[in-house]
Amino acid sequence: MIELVLGDITDQDVDVIVNAANSSLLGGSGVDGAIHRKGGPEILAACRELRAGHYGGGLKTGHAVATTAGRLLAKWVVHTVGPVWSDIEDHSSLLDACHRNSVKVASGLGARTIAFPAISTGIYGWPLDSAASIALAATTEQIAELSHITTVRFVLFDQTAYKAFERALKRR
Ligand code: AR6
Questions:
Q1: Which residue segments constitute the domains of the chain, with CATH numbers given?
Q2: Does pTM top 0.85 for this prediction?
Q3: 161 alpha carbon to ligand 1 midpoint, in Å?
Q4: Would you tell me how many other CB atoms lie within 10 Å of the CB of residue 70?
């Protein structure tokens, strides 16, 4: 089931919250900043451990990895790195991959509910209508293949983003 909600992703009572991170995994602004601020230092500590281990070179664009959600209501944060929008190169497959891989990681943890922000549509500059179509297609197709996940909630921060996702959902 796909849900659209206008709000702040850090308030969501779901099993997994997806973070629109960067490859350093060490925080940033936007969703990333909000998650680390509200989730507390446990999340950053877990990210530093990842960087000290298997993710020494950082998390690649399109990939996803889980940590504790610290003090958030969620059980886990799944960090993924969306692509930066480009007018000259099509990076749609990477935006598709970060949604699919986030669902896969969440499902592997046994999560049933997962909340996504509008990945790449902030600092990374991806046009909202395009991002919404890619996000909805990727998550719908991926959950059809995995039995665990029952609900995918897109948490949109403002009316403009909410309306773009609403239009994309109607087009499906
Ligand atoms: N809850 C839900 N959505 C939010 C929230 C929130 N608390 N805050 C912002 N948004 P962005 P990106 C919306 O920039 O484009 C970071 O520095 C926002 O309005 O968070 O993938 C990372 O470290 C926009 O629609 O993510 C990376 O360096 C959407 O979430 C870089 O930004 C995504 O905006 C990632 O850029």
A1: 2-171 (3.40.220.10)
A2: yes
A3: 12
A4: 18
Instruction: Give percent of the chain with pLDDT exceeding 70.
Output: 99
- Cα separation, 150 vs 157, in Å, equals 23
What digits encode the pLDDT tens for the residues 139-170?
Answer: 999 999 876 899 999 999 999 999 999 999 99
Q: Is the CB of 9 under 6 A from ligand 1?
A: yes
Contacts of 154 (CB under 8 A, 6+ apart): 2, 3, 4, 5, 115, 116, 117, 118, 135, 136, 165
What is the set of active-site residues?
A: 32
Among 31, 85, 124, the mutation site with the greatest number of ligand 1 atoms within 8 A of its Cβ is 31
Cβ burial of 127 (10 Å; 0-12, 13-18, 19+) is exposed
The token pair that represents 131 in the structure block: 């991002």
The response to whether residue 157 sits with its C-beta less than 6 Å from ligand 1 reads yes
Q: What is the pLDDT of residue 146?
A: 73
